[in-house]
Amino acid sequence: MNIYTKKGDSGETSLLGGKRVRKSHSRIMAYGTIDELNSHLGLVRSFDIKDWYKDALLKIQKNLFNIGARLSHDPASEIKNLPEITESDVVFLEKEIDEMEKFLPELTAFIIPGGNKAVGACHVARSVARRAERVTSMLDEKEPVEPIILKYLNRLADYLFVLARSIGYDSEVEEIKWK
To answer: What is the pLDDT at residue 105?
Structure first.
């Protein structure tokens, strides 16, 4: 099987279901940003961080594939058995946030992103998660997106912010506050 098909050489691609759209279509922008975010999370997982974080990030990466599949689906087609994103996936993120926050100092100011490579990569992932949320919200204005997807992306950006702080705390990296 070749990785290249040459079908996208004209600036179009296919949605699940077969419909051809421009690569600049808001649906392609949404799931493309999800893919970018997933790659950034893979980078964060490559650092020397706790296995607990790596396990959570892998679960999140799998959920992002599920979201990508749902966003790449042509809503007019009859495709069944798409992978689900559920409220329990959102609750997982919330529980992870709560667990990390137990050990973190109270947040009293905005934090300038950075500290070490892992923390910096986590902040990049957080900002891409926010962009994924914005782009998916823009798609939702044109073609309805399942509300759970928007909710998950919102919570995921929160999770990544707390994860960056937690990795920094574990590494004894000083947070630089913006005043």
So the answer is: 92
